[in-house]
Design brief:
Blueprint (H helix, E strand, L loop, with lengths): L1 H13 L5 H28 L6 H12 L1 H13 L8 H23 L25 H12 L2 H30 L7 H25 L1 H7 L2 H21 L20 H29 L4 H22 L5 H25 L14
Length: 361
C-alpha cells in the first residue's frame, strides 16, 4: 500500500509543473500502482476482519474512500466557480492541497497495525491451507487457479458491471449533463455538483451497510445487491427520460422525453448512481473477504483486473455509442450480475464452508 501511495503522490506532484511526456508516462505507471494499491487494500481489509466484522469494515472502508468524491468536488466547485480558465496559481493551489493530503495518508499507512493470527480464523476458505507462505509467483499461480473456479467466473459478471458503471458515473454521466444545453447556463456547473451527489450516495450507502453489518450478515447480502440493482435500473430509466441521446458524444440542444430537462432530477440520478454503486462494491468486498481469507490478494487482484478491463472497454465504446445504448448495456449487465450473485449464494452452504468449491473443467 505504501508503494502504491508513493506513486500516487509523485503523480500528483507532476501537475505542479506539468510536462506532457511526464504526465503520460506517469499515467502509465499510475495504472500499475493503482492495481497494487487496490489489491493490497482489499487484502489488508480481509486479514484484519472476522466473519462478524467483514461486512461492517467493508462498508466503513467504502464510505471513507468515497469521501474524496464529496469533499474533492465541493472544493473544486467553489474554487473554480465562475472561472472560465484555470490559471497556474489555481492549479498549483489545488495540487498542493492534494499532494499534502496524499502525504498525510502515506504517514497514516505506516502507523497501521500488523496482522493478528486470530483475526480471520473464523472466515471461510476456498481450497487454501491456513497460514501458507506464498511468494509473488505462487500468488500469481493461485490467481489463475481461482479464476477457473465456478464462483469467481460467476462473480466476474459482478466485477465487470462495477467497471462498466464506474466508467459511466465517473466519465460519461457528468459529461452528458454538461453537454445538455437545454439545462441552461448552469449545465457546466452541474458537472461538479453531479460528482458531489454521487459522493453523497456512495457515503450514505457505505455507512448504512457498514453500520448494519451484523444484520446484513444475519440475513445475507442478497437484499443489498437486489436493492442496488433496483436503484440502478430506476436511475437508468430516469436518465433515459431526462438527457438527450447525443449528450455523451457532443453538446446538443436535442429535446429529451422530459422537456425541458430537469436539473434537480439530474442530481437525484447522480445520488442514485452513487448509492447503487456502494451496494455492489461493499458486498463484493465483503463476500470476497469471507470466501478467500487466505487468498485475499489473488482474489482482489482478479476483481480489479476484471473491473479495470470492463472500465476500459466502456471508455472505448462511450466515445461513439448514444446514451440509450449505453444505458441498455448497463441495464442488461446489472440484471445478469444480480442473477449470478444470487446463483452463487443459492449454491453455497455458508455454514459448511467453501471446501467443496472446485475448478471448472
Amino acid at each position: 500500500m505504501v508503494f502504491g501511495g508513493c506513486i500516487y503522490s509523485i503523480f500528483i506532484g507532476l501537475f505542479l509543473k506539468p510536462v506532457e511526456w511526464t504526465i503520460y508516462t506517469g499515467s502509465a505507471v499510475l495504472g500499475f500502482a493503482a492495481a497494487v494499491l487496490w489489491t493490497a487494500q482489499g487484502s489488508y481489509l480481509t486479514i484484519n476482519s472476522t466473519s462478524d466484522t467483514i461486512a461492517r469494515n467493508s462498508g466503513i472502508f467504502w464510505a471513507l474512500l468515497q469521501c474524496s468524491l464529496l469533499f474533492g468536488n465541493l472544493y473544486a466547485y467553489f474554487k473554480f466557480h465562475g472561472e472560465v480558465t484555470i490559471d497556474a496559481s489555481s492549479r498549483v493551489t489545488v495540487f498542493t492541497v492534494l499532494l499534502v493530503t496524499s502525504c498525510v495518508g502515506l504517514v497514516l499507512l505506516l502507523c497501521m497495525r500488523n496482522r493478528k493470527d486470530s483475526d480471520n480464523e473464523d472466515l471461510l476458505s476456498v481450497n487454501a491451507p491456513r497460514r501458507e507462505a506464498r511468494g509473488p509467483l505462487q500468488a500469481l499461480k493461485r490467481s489463475f487457479q481461482l479464476f477457473k473456479t465456478r464462483e469467481i467466473l460467476l462473480l466476474s459478471v459482478c466485477f465487470a458491471y462495477t467497471g462498466l458503471e464506474l466508467t459511466f458515473f465517473s466519465g460519461v454521466y457528468g459529461t452528458s449533463v454538461g453537454h445538455t444545453l437545454r439545462l441552461g447556463d448552469n449545465a457546466k456547473q452541474l458537472l461538479g455538483l453531479s460528482g458531489v451527489f454521487i459522493g453523497v450516495g456512495e457515503i450514505l450507502g457505505g455507512t448504512m451497510f457498514g453500520l448494519l453489518g451484523k444484520r446484513t450478515n444475519k440475513y445475507g447480502r442478497d437484499p443489498i445487491v437486489l436493492f442496488g440493482c433496483v436503484v440502478h435500473l430506476t436511475c437508468f430509466f430516469l436518465i433515459y427520460l431526462n438527457l438527450p441521446a447525443e449528450s455523451p458524444i457532443k453538446e446538443t440542444d436535442q429535446l429529451p422525453f422530459i422537456n425541458p430537462p430537469n436539473e434537480y432530477l439530474a442530481m437525484v440520478c447522480s445520488f442514485l448512481l452513487g448509492l447503487g454503486d456502494s451496494s455492489f462494491n461493499t458486498q463484493i468486498y465483503s463476500i470476497l473477504g469471507m470466501m478467500f481469507p487466505e487468498d485475499s490478494a489473488p482474489a482482489f487482484a482478479l476483481f480489479k483486473f476484471v473491473q479495470s478491463f470492463a472500465a476500459a472497454a466502456a471508455f472505448y465504446y462511450s466515445r461513439f455509442l448514444l446514451l440509450p445504448w449505453q444505458l441498455c448495456i448497463l441495464a442488461v449487465t446489472v440484471m445478469l450480475a444480480t442473477g449470478f450473485y444470487y446463483k452463487i449464494r443459492n449454491s453455497l452452504d455458508f455454514l459448511k464452508g467453501y471446501s467443496h468449491l472446485g475448478v471448472v473443467k
